[in-house]
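User: Show me a protein chain along with its predicted structure.
Assistant: Here is one chain, sequence first, then structure tokens.
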Amino acid sequence: MPFLSSRSFAPNSIHIFPKALLCAAIGLTLASCSNSENAATDSDVTLNLYNWSEYMPQEILAGFEDETGINVNYTTFDSNEAMYAKLKLLDDSSQYDLAVPSTYYVEKMANEGLLQELDKSKLSNFSNLDTSFTNTKVDPDNKYSIPYMWGSTGLAINGDVIDPATVNSWNDLWRPDFENQVMLMNDMREVFGMALLTLGYSGNSSNPDEIKAAYDKLTTIMPNVKTFNSDATRIPYMEGETNVGMTWNGEAVMANDEGLTSLVYKYPTEGAILWMDNFVIPKNAKQVDAAHQFIDYILRPENAKIISEEIGYASPNMAARELMDEEVRNNPVIYPPQDVLANAEFQEDVGDEALQVYQQYWDMLKTGR
């Protein structure tokens, strides 16, 4: 997920920050196709990729395997906290070669020595990236990370059940008539960020009193909460389990594409939550060269275009955006207009001390349901 500073978004102003689609290959090792003239005829190399659920098109994975002969083992997580805990726990096992944390976790993991430096001489397509998303405060000179996708967290409303014109604010999710109809993300920072914004605070607050105030307010929304989901946030809406709540913009695009055309995505009046996700190489990765090859493959404009159009999130790849159809490039759900960006806030690292406070209240909120 993201980061800009404060509530502004303009070229070279990200102070840092940073979910996904059809991956039938989740948890599987994809068989290597070696029919391409440029592909290796055989390979015992397997790249272990740890990514968000439904966040990498099968076409891209298969294309990389076909071209390089490198197998891809794709496993998933549904929150930065889960990803971080597993990588830290398995730090010495070299289980993963490539991971996709949000930017505020890139900073945290780099500071804790969990990442290795990238060799940008192996990334010939790095220059395709929009400079608004590179050389950020969190990772100067992109020493440890390469931007993958960015997007927003906003309101989702099933227009077949609820009039979208009546839901414009995060505060609307507290309405009594939404009892047992609301979906919240299964993501501590996203949920607390939403509550903090309704109180007039920054979604990146590290003030314990403000975090407690957000917790106190969140306890009052629980009668409305039907489910928490950060795996595939469109599914509860598509299955009729929930009718209103939070979602990522790309999931709303996918839901529309998959038949739920009544699902409306809106930017809340208090401001959307912005995020950006990034490729990193864990400290003890075994297949470092393969990891660099995969990143550079993703950075090709034609591949970045496929990814963005299929999973519905914004690409930081400027060259890829130039290849996109105008209706995609100008879709305000995917690429928010400047007035929305000016009222949005990218997620930032709040520090370990504040994170522990968030975690304490998050556990209390979830167990108190």
